[in-house]
């Protein structure tokens, strides 16, 4: 079996595992689980993690040049290894983002909008989960419930930052830094998409002034070829 | 009567209804009405809502493919149904934005500026109303007067977020999230418009280096056709 | 004397008057003047204001179509009338920005950078003055010294908004709103200039793939004309 | 020896000196050194400073037109002179940014990403050092440890500004202003890079509609030349 074949086969199962992970993690954090329920949620999380671990090793085994694959897929390794550390579990989010990227429609700009909305929503949801997980019950912490965590995530990703909820733990601050970077990137993508749309709209006002297209040049080239043929005919 | 005809007929009455709604809502919230005045304002608000509800059902009845129209106009349904919930009344704002989009002038970039200023102003005004409506009198709330609400709306849409006024109710926070998204979009549109203008100005410095236009290619094509005609003439 | 001639003659005196105004206003506000010094500063401010008032009426008198000039120069009227209201004196800033626009160099992008730095600096300086003027000594106000006001202006224009200094008076909040709008515009101009530069740099990597220029098309057109001349010659 | 030769020779030694400076400064500030360790760190910092001072004077001596070089390299003078003032030492950062610019890869957009990540990281690191150096132990200051300073730097560069940590000293505020400007520039570069990428991707969807390239025009020109040759041949 080749690496491509394996990747194609495991695409949907891995997507499902990532979704199951997110649901179990959300249930554990939002529900503030204890006892047997916590055990169930933790078990589900570890099983989904094991699925990704197995996938990583199978891919490594199937790769034609193993060292090269290892070096070029260090990020995949991080996604597999780091979630063992509880707070970094939200890195699993990246897997779900990959799915989103695929399911987005055909037109490029439409795809960008779907992606920004989807990625932004997932980022806020997962960051709120992770921050709540890290902050709840800590001395001096403000983020105690899931709605508060979501509100804080919105404040942070939009760079408003009122300061009514601020992470006080180190993990919470790490999550906040991730959200800030996400906020800058989101703002950039929104602006850039709008810019490309406005540039196009402005350009379309005067058709004759629009840039010459390759199709037009091909048309011209055909006309010249016909001319040449005409000359050759006459010469004959 | 066709759907297009109905839409054309109801364009101005619906615009007027939206404007009446905004005035009545502003009067109710800013004036902090009680007794018979509150009853008048509420009656006006419910009448404008009924107008939009009737328009929705007439459009649905006139649509050639009703199910298709229903699916592709879910957002219209939300605008009609959700304002029953008091805090979501500001969704009516969308109707007024549609008018603004139409009344903006001819040149595309000028239209963008008019739209941004108008939409930004309406967004701040309506969000301040909705936040004041939700926050006033709540325990721990800071937003108690309309000027405070407008100041808070400016702080939020510009993503400055000093934190001197922060919404504490759930509805107030929802309004804030809407404003943040509006702020990001506004910033994006402003930047993109400026970018398209700067790109154009930079490109115009050297005329010979500007992109070849379709008009020029058409000119070339005409020259080649004349050449062909000349050759045909000689062959004859 | 024509309007153009008058405008040309008064260009430098008006610039000087605007600069004198700014110095006097800064001296009055930063120095927190009292007694005879305050009288001197106020006198200078009123004289510079009178200079602009006279210029406005002379322009109006010289304009060929007075009503048309009046309608198209409402902003000039605002700059002249509003500074009578003490807090809106910073509108005089607009006059100085006009000078800056002229003195910026020749290359368009270079001019944008000079303009952004100059306009941003002036905006921060004048807003700090106006906010200090409005806030100092008010109950509950935080902005009491000029360095504090400048720090607050930087926080606001960059949309960071820590919330350690917040305007509490209505005029102070108005100044803040102006700074926020200025901040958004500055961010937009910086981004747009960078975007135009990056688009250009990316486009220059493969010369053959760059857009066809008008100069190239003119070259082609010449070649075809020569061909036609050659054919005509042969026909003769 | 020419100026170019000297610059080429000293490129790597100066880079090393800048790196040594950064390490020594970080050690001094993070370790909150006292006694002999402080003396060692300070000595290293002064030696690296002397290296840059010597380089400045050698460059000045080798320059063909000394006054012209002096005027066009005022910024270099500032980098050399200002670090004598302890808090402005982070200006040395500029030297390291120059190295980063060189070591970034070949493709332009890739280079921009490497540069933004590298410059952003360095900016945050150095600003956190400088702010910690200025704020630690001051009355009313919040920034007391290096992790707090880094967290504050992230909050500021992303313009979130919760307000949980705010510089209270003049030097700390100066550092903050630098970070804000850096934040705006970073946001601008990220947006602009994304914009250029999206514009390109949108343009590539329909190949025939893409702008005509110079390569295509050259092809056309060749075809016409062949035509001319054909005609000449016949005439002969």
TrEMBL record, chains A, B, C, D:
It is found in: Membrane. It comes from Leifsonia shinshuensis. PANTHER family: POTASSIUM VOLTAGE-GATED CHANNEL PROTEIN SHAB, VOLTAGE-GATED POTASSIUM CHANNEL. GO terms for molecular function: voltage-gated potassium channel activity. The keyword Ion transport applies. Residues 144-199 form the Potassium channel domain. The chain crosses the membrane at residues 12-31, 43-63, 112-132, 174-199. One of its GO terms (cellular component) is voltage-gated potassium channel complex. The lineage of its organism: Bacteria, Bacillati, Actinomycetota, Actinomycetes, Micrococcales. It is a multi-pass membrane protein. GO terms for biological process: action potential. This is Voltage-gated potassium channel. Keywords: Ion channel, Ion transport, Membrane, Transmembrane, Transmembrane helix, Transport. Signal peptide: none annotated. The keyword Membrane applies. Gene3D superfamilies: 1.10.287.70, 1.20.5.110, Voltage-gated potassium channels. Chain C (1.20.120.350). Pfam families: Ion_trans_2.
